[in-house]
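Below is a filled-in request sheet from our internal design queue. Each sheet records the structural input a requester submitted and the sequence that came back. We keep these sheets so that new team members can see what a complete request looks like end to end.

REQUESTER: design group, bay 2
PRIORITY: normal
MODE: inverse folding
CHAIN LENGTH: 235
BACKBONE (tokenized):
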């Protein structure tokens, strides 16, 4: 009886092991990378108007007047108003701190940040100069991008998948195996890396004051994607 039970148990274990092996075929797990370079066709500029006055109503009026002048100068270059927006507005008192630790009210400060989307990159330097020449005294950022970045990201993703497949085929061939099917796919990342170009506001203002147009070079963008794929291979 014991012999029969041991033999039965051994057969059951062998059947389970065979079934487990069939349910868990050999897998190759690889990562793939894809990179596409693209020429930017859009720029986003942020300029600021910072105004300080003793009187709160005076600082508000002065800031509004200057910000309006800046916006009108940009519109005059052919930039549509729908591409110009207020990125941030702040109003706060300013204090002077004495040696004995007291805070004395000196006046008020208003900041109006204007964001401009420019689709003609030849106008980027002109937009910055116009803003500075009409009262903007701060350049917060200049970023380049793509109007249709999805197409470039899709191509980077396609290249990442091909890269993963190529690696898996090399591994399988080296082992004397072949790829049977795809078990799992995960996208690790998909992004556009854009160069950031900017100058200090003072340097820009000095260039504008002497009649130079601010030079802007957009460079190139990198659209990248990475994937992780599990391939089932032959036994």
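RETURNED SEQUENCE:
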């Amino acid at each position: 009886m014991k012999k029969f039970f041991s033999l039965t148990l051994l057969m059951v274990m062998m059947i389970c092991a065979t079934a487990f092996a069939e349910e868990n075929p050999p897998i190759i797990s690889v990562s793939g990378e894809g990179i596409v370079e693209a020429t930017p066709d859009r720029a986003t500029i942020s300029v600021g108007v910072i105004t300080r006055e003793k009187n709160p109503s005076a600082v508000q009026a002065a800031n509004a007047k200057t910000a309006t002048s800046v916006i009108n100068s940009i519109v005059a270059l052919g930039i549509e108003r729908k591409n110009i927006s207020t990125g941030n507005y702040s109003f706060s008192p300013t204090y002077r701190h004495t040696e004995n630790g007291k805070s004395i009210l000196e006046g008020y400060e208003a900041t109006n940040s204007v964001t401009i989307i420019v689709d003609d990159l030849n106008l980027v330097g002109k937009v910055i100069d116009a803003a500075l020449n009409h009262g903007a005294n701060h350049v917060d950022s200049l970023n380049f991008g793509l109007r249709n970045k999805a197409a470039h990201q899709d191509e980077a993703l396609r290249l990442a998948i091909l890269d993963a497949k190529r690696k898996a085929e090399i591994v399988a061939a080296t082992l004397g195996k072949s790829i049977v099917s795809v078990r799992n796919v995960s996208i690790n990342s998909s992004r556009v890396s854009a160069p950031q170009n900017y100058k200090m506001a003072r340097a820009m203002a000095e260039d504008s004051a002497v009649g130079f147009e601010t030079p802007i070079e957009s460079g190139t963008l990198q659209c990248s994607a990475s994937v992780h794929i599990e391939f089932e291979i032959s036994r």
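SHEET NOTES:
- The domain at 25-40+147-235 is CATH 3.30.110.170 (Translation Initiation Factor IF3).
- The mean pLDDT is 85.
FILED BY: M.R.
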